[in-house]
Specification:
This protein is α/β, with parallel strands linked by helices and about 350 residues long. Helix content is about 35%, strand content about 20%. It is built from 13 helices and 13 strands. The strands form two sheets. Strands 1-13-12-11-10-2-6-7 form an eight-stranded mixed β-sheet, sandwiched between helices. Strands 4-9-8-3-5 form a five-stranded mixed β-sheet. Strand 10, helix 7 and strand 11 (about 205-210) form a beta-alpha-beta unit. The longest helix is centred in the C-terminal third of the chain and has 15 residues, at about 325-340. InterPro entries: Adenokinase (IPR001805), Carboh/pur_kinase_PfkB_CS (IPR002173), PfkB_dom (IPR011611), Ribokinase-like (IPR029056). Belongs to the carbohydrate kinase PfkB family. Its cofactor is Mg(2+).
């Protein structure tokens, strides 16, 4: 993994500071991760491949409850943005509740477990709770070294700006933050909520960060993405997403450094800050300032699924403390390196990062 960023940039403040509670804000699709070692019969029952990622269909609806009944399961607070916020909190450690998180869950057993698990990671999660859809879940069905992921967004798709974000007590939490992060996945849920937060950040010269998240976001939700882009101060993405984005934007290049340059030059509302583009890609060097990844023996890699979320979380943990960009990237690489050694987006009690 190598990060490219543009321009060469330091944050406003050269002196680092301990962030106050609620200084990092995230909004996205909260999912309860349900992890278990299963058998081949279970995969066959639900027509699952051993190593795959799919969205749940009608045939998978009973899978989640059956998994809980049949196997020993672990629960974790998940979903891309929530993962990044909890990783940032873990990297910073104290004080607690640095990260605020908004998203939608159901009024059900899985929702209660999700609230408990989020609290255990010391993030300040404020969920919009509704009873039309159940809490979103992501089943991780492990067989040997393989891992089949089945995600059911359910309630995560039901976030409503007027029912939650606009409420005075919730908007006050938004105003307390100085760094904002929303994964591109949320563009499929509530564009109006993203725009309200993005405009607030821009008008108050705060940092608004976004992730391309997946090629399908760049392809099928590009209109929503491009409505938000003028407010984006820090744009994250991997090589595959960047290539898809470049194709949809007619950049006429697959060269990562050129894509970064063109993305950085897209129109921007807050001209006090130049856009920073942080792209991760294999082990290839680039002509821009590059950061070598931490070496890891392939046999130590347990699960790469949370690596992207962890990379962003590590980056945000330093960004919210006004650290220089090279330190943000160093922390990003450290967090990703820790997470890929473990199942799911989980981490030891304390980081060992200097």
């Amino acid at each position: 993994m190598c990060a490219v960023f543009l321009p060469q940039h330091r944050t406003d403040c050269a002196n680092t500071e301990t962030p106050h509670p609620n200084s990092l804000f995230g909004m996205g699709n909260p999912l309860l991760d349900i992890i278990a070692v299963v058998d081949k019969d279970f995969l066959d029952t639900y027509s699952l491949k051993p190593n795959d990622q799919i969205l749940a269909e009608d045939q998978h609806k009973a899978l989640f409850e059956e998994m809980v009944k049949k196997f020993k399961v672990e629960y974790h607070a998940g979903g891309a943005t929530q993962n990044s916020i909890k990783i940032a909190q873990w990297m910073i450690q104290e004080p607690h509740n640095i990260g605020t998180f908004f998203g939608c869950i159901g009024k059900d057993k899985f929702g209660d477990i999700l609230k408990e698990k989020a609290k255990a990671t010391h993030i300040d999660a404020h969920y919009y709770e509704q009873d039309e859809e159940p809490t979103g879940t992501c089943a991780a069905c492990i067989t040997g070294d393989n891992r089949s992921l089945v995600a059911n967004l359910a309630a995560a798709n039901c976030y409503k700006k007027d029912k939650h974000l606009d409420l005075e007590e919730n908007w006050k939490l938004v105003e307390k933050a100085k760094v904002y992060y929303i994964a591109g996945f949320f563009l499929t849920v509530s564009l109006e909520s993203i725009l309200k937060v993005a405009k607030h950040a821009s008008e108050n010269n705060k940092l608004f960060c976004m992730n391309l998240s997946a090629p399908f976001i760049c392809q099928f939700f590009k209109d929503n993405l491009m409505q938000v882009m003028p407010y984006v101060d820090v744009l994250f993405g991997n090589e595959t997403e960047a290539t898809a984005f470049a194709k949809e934007q007619n950049f006429k290049t697959e060269d990562i450094k050129e894509i970064a340059k063109k993305a950085q030059a897209l129109p921007k509302v807050n001209t006090k800050r130049q856009r920073i583009v942080v792209l991760t890609q294999g082990k290839d060097e680039t002509v821009f300032e590059t950061f070598p990844v931490l070496k890891i023996d392939p046999k130590d890699i347990v699960d790469t699924n949370g690596a992207g979320d962890a990379f962003v979380g590590g980056f945000l943990s330093e960004l919210v403390m006004d650290k220089p960009m090279d330190q943000c990237v160093k922390a990003a690489h450290y967090a990703a390196n820790v997470i890929i050694r473990r199942a799911g987006c989980t981490f030891p009690e304390k980081p060992d990062f200097k």
